[in-house]
Amino acid sequence: MESSSILDSLGVEIIGVMAPVSICMFLVVLLTYSLSVTSDPQIRTAANLIYIENPSDSATVKLEGSLENAIVFVVLVAAVTFVLVLLFYFNFTNFLKHYMRFSAFFVLGTMGGAIFLSIIQHFSIPVDSITCFILLFNFTILGTLSVFSEGMPIVVRQCYMVVMGIVVAAWFTKLPEWTTWFILVALALYDLVAVLAPGGPLKLLVELASTRDEELPAMVYEARPTVSRSHRGGSGGGGGTSLRVLVGGGGGGGVSDSGSVELQAVGDGATHNLDYNAVAVMDIDSVDGVGRSREGHSASSVSSEHSRELGSIGNRESVAEEEMSPLVELMGWGDNREEPRGLVEESDNIDRGIKLGLGDFIFYSVLVGRAAMYDLMTVYACYLAIISGLGCTLILLSVYNKALPALPISIMLGVVFYFLTRLLMEPFVVGVSTNLMMF
Amino acid sequence: MHRSFEIIGKVMTVAAGIGYALLALGPSLSLFVSVISRKPFLILTLLSSTLVWLVSLIVLSGLWRPFLPLKANVWWPYTLLVLSSVCFQEALRFLFWKLYMRLEDVLDSFADRISRPRLFLTDKLQIALAGGLGHGVAHAVFFCLSLLTPAFAIIALAFVTIHTFSMVIAFEGYAKGNKVDQVIVPVIHLSAGMLTLVNFASEGCVIGVPLLYLVASLTLLHCGKMVWQRLIESRNQSGPTLR
């Protein structure tokens, strides 16, 4: 009867990113509860190189030890990122792609396999080892194929990204408590520096990729909205409600620079094909996506992988853990006039969407998983903090229109809310509600 | 979760836990699935209103932290606590409304710019509903989900209803400048909070909980009546022009 209101499709892209992040966090919390893993003091990983946390140590010892652990970890991550930049600079892109595939295989097979085994043990699921092995093998191979291939349906790729995030995050939650918090904060700071500072490795990577107009080899979650574009007499403003128009317009008509260029370039006022393409973190997947972008900024993301050798149960040593650095980037993309009408649909659906790096998924879930080990209230508080941080980052993305780190705001908010909830709110709420008093 | 189990001191099966959680949150879940999940903007509204409620709770607990733990058998500090909390949250609701007015302007100008119709009445009501649901869900999670027992779940259900629909009443009241609506929301919230104080007395919850549900159903009725009137009004206004 009436034409649809703007409320129908506003914010689809944001929800398209927040939904998988929420699912990942939810599943990690579920895993943490059901498996009830306590941190195993025997594991020495790259995060534990200097100091193995012992619950009986005093506070200052723990503080210093965790700080050292965190610093060493960040240094390792930075070193690996620089190696990545070098490799990319010397055009070893194929090597990087194959290495990514190998690490996806490794992560899904060994770490995912270990998690499956513990689930089977915990719930006493009756399945024999041969079936289990075959299923796991199929699962892993499909995941490896889906990572960088072009022919896979996007849903499969998205699911496997989320699964990999869950698997890696579940392993990270085994780290001891103080170390986890320090590492999270240190990584958030590192991310801020690496993406924004002039000498930062991630920034170099972005610039390299954009000058060469190539995609970066990296693992990224792509959220492609499925809103169909309604063409009304040449105007394609139907589905693509643009956050940038909203945010730019909200500033009293003063649209941000590149935004205004695109707004005007489109020509008549009725046509606003402003669907911005936010590219988050590294993704080689953007063969069909980023490669066709017309604007300069390409996705930059450092892909670090988390690879680990699992030796015998007694001694476990880890290989270097590379992190997937989170990075959120927005690619402006506005002008569709040159495209013949028939191609617009397809190109829109391929190029549009926000991309979020796998590292973001992992570290958000680690934070929430660690909060889950305390209480449900802290889980909820940290979840809200992370989601609002992500929302802020996405808004900043549409304003600044370049690669942005996704970790700092969310992690900082998450840590602050965790400690506030744990120290302040819980005594208050528990004290009030145990007397059946509420407001 | 481990700490809360210590406090309750009983072993709970997963099925029972899910049952209690659904008791408190079932209606809001169905509201979410049917109304809010359709429009992404409403999901964002829900998340932000939950955040606002969480922040208000943190601020309140920060203020009251030096005085905790309160003595168990004296009831007047609790009265003070409830009073101050309700006042603070109502003030925050007003600020939330102011923010929402600003947002409405932004959305309307955005709609003009892309030549789409402005926000309808139903849109505004839905946004208010999402905001109220956010408050209600936050209340249920923080007051009920950590300490899952049937008593908490039942009380939380009443409060979820109250929060959800009083937000709709409040937004309409502030928008129209209707004094009755504006005043009735804090009154409802305060009376609901005070009613839970009755639970303090032994066997008090036999009186307290039904009265609470009375308040909740009053809220529901008032909201329904108000929304119905507004819809009829707007239908009458736009009716002749459409033809």
TrEMBL record, chain B:
<dbReference type="InterPro" id="IPR009294">
    <property type="entry name" value="Aph-1"/>
</dbReference>
<dbReference type="Pfam" id="PF06105">
    <property type="entry name" value="Aph-1"/>
</dbReference>
<feature type="transmembrane region" description="Helical">
    <location>
        <begin position="207"/>
        <end position="228"/>
    </location>
</feature>
<feature type="transmembrane region" description="Helical">
    <location>
        <begin position="12"/>
        <end position="34"/>
    </location>
</feature>
<feature type="transmembrane region" description="Helical">
    <location>
        <begin position="41"/>
        <end position="63"/>
    </location>
</feature>
<keyword id="KW-0914">Notch signaling pathway</keyword>
<keyword id="KW-0812">Transmembrane</keyword>
<feature type="transmembrane region" description="Helical">
    <location>
        <begin position="75"/>
        <end position="96"/>
    </location>
</feature>
<comment type="similarity">
    <text>Belongs to the APH-1 family.</text>
</comment>
<protein>
    <recommendedName>
        <fullName>Gamma-secretase subunit APH1-like</fullName>
    </recommendedName>
</protein>
<feature type="transmembrane region" description="Helical">
    <location>
        <begin position="151"/>
        <end position="171"/>
    </location>
</feature>
<keyword id="KW-0472">Membrane</keyword>
<keyword id="KW-1133">Transmembrane helix</keyword>
